[in-house]
Amino acid sequence: MNVTDLGFTADELRTLVIERAADKLCAEVLGADTADYAEEALSAVDRKIKAHIDEAITPLIDAAIAKHVEPYFSSEIEKLVFEETNRWGEKVGKTLTFREMVIERAQAYIEEPVSYDGKAKSQDSYNWRPNTTRIAYEVDKHIQYEISVALKDAIGNLNSSIASGLAGAVKVSLAQAVEGVKVAVTTK
Fold first, then answer.
1. How many CA atoms lie within 13 Å of 29's alpha carbon, on the beta-carbon side?
2. What does the angle CA 142 – CA 144 – CA 147 come to, to the nearest 5 degrees?
3. Which of 40, 133, 151, 163 has the most C-beta neighbours closer than 10 Å?
4. Contacts of 101 (CB under 8 A, 6+ apart)
5. Quick one: angle between helices 134-180 and 98-111, nearest 10?
6. How many Å apart are CA 165 and CA 157, to the nearest integer?
7. By C-alpha distance, which of 102, 82, 105 is closest to 94?
8. Whole-structure pTM value
9. Which phi and psi (to 5°) does residue 111 adopt?
């Protein structure tokens, strides 16, 4: 059997197949039986197709990045060298690799003096006085938080046990008071 035997050219048959597939896909997405679809039908189909493409392509892109891009950037970062210069561009300091520079900056950051509220002089220079280092301040703040959480729990438990004990004591006292009261009725 040939396409021309059916009375169609190859292009007409291709167009009809594409239209039928689009109608079927739109009917599946919108739940309709007609081929009369508006903008929302096409956008719904576009979203579904994009979701399928993203689902299929994203793992491939991630694998390609892990295989080719990450090793390249890692090796390039290891090759980076920084030198301190004066304002004319003349080299005046020691040469540091990227890793050494990051470690040195992190060390300087955690050892930077801060005020009692954890601010560096560059953040709050008015009436600033050094109190401790940034790392000591952060450790103290963390310890203070943990202690306050533990105290809140302990006080909550204590309050609940005191309240239940107090309620029991009040009940016993009221029962004893009721037993001690004698009611007498006299008539005149």
1. 20
2. 110
3. 133
4. 82
5. 50
6. 12
7. 82
8. 0.46
9. -95, 0
CA distance 124 to 118: 10
Amino acid at 56: A
Report d(CA 154, CA 77) in Å as an integer: 50
Q: Are 46 and 37 in contact (CB under 8 A)?
A: no
Contact 133, 114 (CB under 8 A): yes
Q: What's the pLDDT tens digit per position in 133-170? A: 999 999 999 999 999 999 999 888 888 888 877 878 88
Local mean pLDDT, 10-residue blocks, the chain (188 residues): 70 80 69 53 73 85 87 86 87 87 92 90 85 93 93 87 81 77 66
Residue at token pair 């000591």: 136
Structure tokens at 120: 């560096």
**Closest-CA residue to 99 (of 83, 84, 85, 79):** 79
Which three-class secondary structure state does DSSP give residue 144?
A: helix
Q: What is the CA radius of gyration of the chain?
A: 39
Q: Which helix (H) or strand (E) holds 110?
A: helix 98-111
Token pair for 56: 């299929």
